[in-house]
Amino acid sequence: MNIKNKKGQSEVISYVIIIFIVAIIVSIIITQINPVISKSKSKQNFQTSKTQIELIEKTIKEVMLEPTSSSKSIRLDLENLFLNVDSDLNKIEIFHIMSGDYYENEIKIKEGNKFTYRENQKLFSGLEFEDINIVNKLFIQNKTLDLYFTKTSRNTLEITTDVIEDSKWYDEEYSYRTKLLIDANKVYGDLENFPVLIKINDSDILEKIKEDGSDLVFTLPDGETKLYREIEYIDTSDEILVWVNIPYIDDEFGTLIYMYFGNSLGDEENTTKTWNKDYVLVQHLNETSGTIYDSTKYDNDATNYSATSGATGQIGKAYFFNGSLSYLTIPSTTIEENGTVSLWMDISNATSTQYFLGGPGQGIRYNGTSFLVFNGGSEWVALNWNKTGYTWINLYIKRINANDYKIYVNGTEIGNSIAGNTGTDISLNLIGKRSDGYYFNGSLDEIKISNKSKSEEWIKTEYINQNNPLEFYGVGEIETN
């Protein structure tokens, strides 16, 4: 009897121990799984929040493009949405708070106006606007907008704007105008006197413009301060390419300008002032015959020797060089210290040493695998860059000192090319070869030489604008006088 009881007690104890062990194991597994599930859910919530913040930013831009006061409502999946106005720092924040821990603590990540931030178990995603002209107002060049954010229901945010000072109409003879708003996310750094490439292919606008474009006027947001402009190409049945010098481009808010058109009496002409005085040569290479004109005040026009005009370029038309006996001549132009050379080039046929810009035994070349700026000395160093996968590229060469030149491809620095050991200036008087041959095989477009250094922000923004001008700015509705 005692033996049986002891056996029964022993079995009960064994079952209890097994159950206890199983419970511990299950608890450990749940402990391990819960953070993973929680972390995954947190990340999903955070991505939803970021998407909503991007929607708010997009709506703000749409509101600012409206020709008159406007209001838009957004349906959101956010509850904890906050508006913070810091009058001391002239800053506005619109942000969402949730829980999560998969970003580093107290690290703020910015992308344009958007930011993400983690503080302990709180995750923030939001928009940040700095340098506000007046508390709760955004300042865009000469135009001030009231921006109001109202949470009208649990998940609806209303954004309204009111123009403080209506812009004036440039001239009563003009029947139409439209807003152009440069996307701040496409601008790297605040830029001054920046020539922006404007491309218009909207048939509703084109049909209202004179065939020669002499009625095209661009102004600041006040509607009356005229900007310098140069029409490179116009076909009102197809498209217009025009360069507009904008005094100041903001990388925080969109930069607004007006485009006026529809004036039968319009007699506007291109102006060399579109290009700052530091530009000593601007060749669009858009002519189909005869003299190839320099757009700057220095009249560094080119003469054609057997190059083919009218080739398809990156921007409008270009000149094609056949790799044998075809070239252009220009007045001798020096790349000064801190000066730059920029151009678009078709490199698909570059397989041997070819000078696309040259002078007396000097110049700038590409051979399909490397770039070289050469000043005629020794100890030069070529810069490797393989053309695989590329046809047209945007090239920027910036002189740093007597022998060193930084090279940028498509807005990104690829390295430093040592031109040699002479320390002499490079004089360029040929396009498509150097004095003793080495002919270029391919097309060239938009050659510009400046005696003033350009920042990396300038170079990157210029590439983005010229690579896809239609994505660089938004076009508003046509306004009627």
Please describe the topology of this protein.
Elements: H1 2-65, E1 70-75, E2 81-86, E3 91-99, E4 108-111, E5 114-119, E6 122-129, E7 137-140, E8 143-153, E9 156-163, E10 176-182, E11 191-200, H2 203-206, E12 217-219, E13 229-235, E14 239-249, E15 255-261, E16 279-283, E17 303-305, E18 308-312, E19 317-322, E20 327-335, E21 340-346, E22 354-358, E23 363-366, E24 370-374, E25 383-384, E26 392-399, E27 404-409, E28 412-418, E29 426-431, E30 441-450, H3 456-467, E31 473-475, E32 479-480
Antiparallel strand pairs: 1-9, 2-3, 3-6, 4-5, 5-6, 7-8, 8-9, 10-15, 10-31, 10-32, 11-14, 12-15, 13-14, 16-30, 17-20, 18-19, 19-30, 20-29, 21-26, 21-30, 22-23, 22-29, 23-24, 24-25, 26-27, 27-28
What does the model show?
17% of the residues lie in helices and 42% in strands. The chain has 481 residues and is α+β, with helices and mostly antiparallel strands. The protein has three domains: 107 residues, Immunoglobulin-like (Sandwich), CATH 2.60.40; 113 residues, no CATH class; 173 residues, Jelly Rolls. Strands 16, 18, 19, 21, 26, 27, 28 and 30 form an eight-stranded antiparallel beta sheet that branches. The protein has a seven-stranded antiparallel beta sheet with strand order 17-20-29-22-23-24-25, with no helix packed on it. A five-stranded antiparallel beta sheet has the order 2-3-6-5-4, covered by helices on one side. A hairpin with a 4-residue loop joins strand 26 and strand 27. About 4% of the residues have low confidence.
